[in-house]
Design goal:
The protein is of the alpha/beta class and 292 residues long. It has eleven helices and 13 strands. A nine-stranded mixed beta sheet has the order 5-4-1-6-11-8-12-10-9, with helices on both faces. It has a two-stranded antiparallel ribbon with strand order 2-3. The longest helix has 14 residues, at 262-275. The termini are far apart. Bound molecules: uridine 5'-triphosphate.
């Protein structure tokens, strides 16, 4: 059985919902308190045993490469100033044992197309996909969503899609799945459709930005035509693959924040601000005073 050691991070989207913030900087470099969104996703993957990080980047995404690279000038200045705690933070953004690979998506043709760009590096291995704009906050002491999905893959060897229930009026914002009950929190997927209107939605179980995919997905992506929004949709390739390969849906327990939307991003910022070791207490008092 092949272990999951590779994760793909599609970071080539336009981030148009966040303009002008994303005009010159990638959405994935927006920060929650003191860490960019992409670092939260990378830490989740590394905790799940991933050792090869594959970023599918686009224009204006240089900052991501720089973030995970050595910062010689900054490091030598911090060293000279004896700021060892800060030096530590800068040097330990990712462990030395983890490799970063960058692939360029020439045009933002959709999430499915972005995943297909990773094919030369993924090869015939199963792999994880993490969308950094979906922040997953696991309960303290619990394994994170990617860890849980990697463990489930080890048991079942089927592709897996993370899902959560959404209000019926929101089905037109997500990939929506249909399934039959299998185990606790797990269903066997029988259908998936991208952004259905509420009256056409097969359920209210919506796909969140975590996947474990069998490499067979690439041949389906190669045959996938433009779908919803004129983009090559990962959902459409999964729907085609589902006819020949098993898929599970996993109802994760983490709190999910849609940081690709302004409101979700604000909610995540407040939550992480309140949890932050350095500023949490003062921030809580500040919010409390605001309300009274
Ligand atoms: P979104 O649907 O959030 O699109 O993409 P977006 O372009 O990032 O943001 P908006 O909707 O314009 O505000 C979901 C994920 O897929 C990636 C994005 O970077 C994000 O992580 N993506 C999307 C690509 O890598 N390439 C694409 O062509 C499209």
């Amino acid at each position: 059985m092949k272990k999951i050691t590779k994760a793909v991070f599609p970071v080539a989207g336009l981030g148009s919902r966040f303009l002008p913030a994303t005009k010159a900087q990638p959405k994935e470099m927006l920060t929650l308190v003191d860490k960019p969104l992409i670092q939260y996703a990378v830490e989740e993957a590394i905790a799940a045993g991933i050792t090869e990080l594959i970023f599918v980047t686009g224009r204006n995404k240089r900052a991501i490469e720089d973030h995970f690279d050595t910062a010689y000038e900054l490091e030598s200045e911090l060293e000279a100033a004896n700021k060892t705690a800060l030096l530590d933070i800068v040097q330990n953004v990712i462990p030395k044992s983890v490799t970063c690979i960058y692939i360029r998506q020439p045009a933002a043709l959709g999430l499915g197309h972005a995943v297909l760009c990773a094919k030369p590096v993924v090869g015939d291995n199963p792999f994880a996909v993490l969308l950094a704009d979906d922040l997953m906050l696991a309960e303290l002491g619990h394994p994170n969503t990617t860890e849980q999905m990697v463990a489930l893959y080890a048991q079942e060897q089927a592709s897996i899609v993370a899902v959560q229930n959404v209000p019926l009026v929101q089905t037109n914002q997500y990939g929506i799945v249909r399934g039959v009950s299998y185990k606790d929190h797990i269903e066997r997927m029988t259908g998936i459709v991208e952004k259905p209107a509420s009256n056409a939605a097969p359920s209210t179980l919506a796909v969140a930005g975590r996947y474990i995919l069998n490499s067979a997905i690439f041949s389906y992506l190669e045959r996938t035509e433009k779908g919803s929004g004129g983009e090559i949709q990962l959902t459409d390739a999964i729907a085609a693959m589902l006819k020949d390969h098993p898929y599970l849906t996993y109802r994760f327990s983490a709190m999910r924040y849609d940081c690709g939307s302004k409101l979700g991003y604000l909610k995540a910022s407040v939550t992480l601000g309140l949890l932050h070791r350095e500023v949490g207490e003062e921030f809580k008092a500040f919010l409390h005073n605001m309300q009274s």
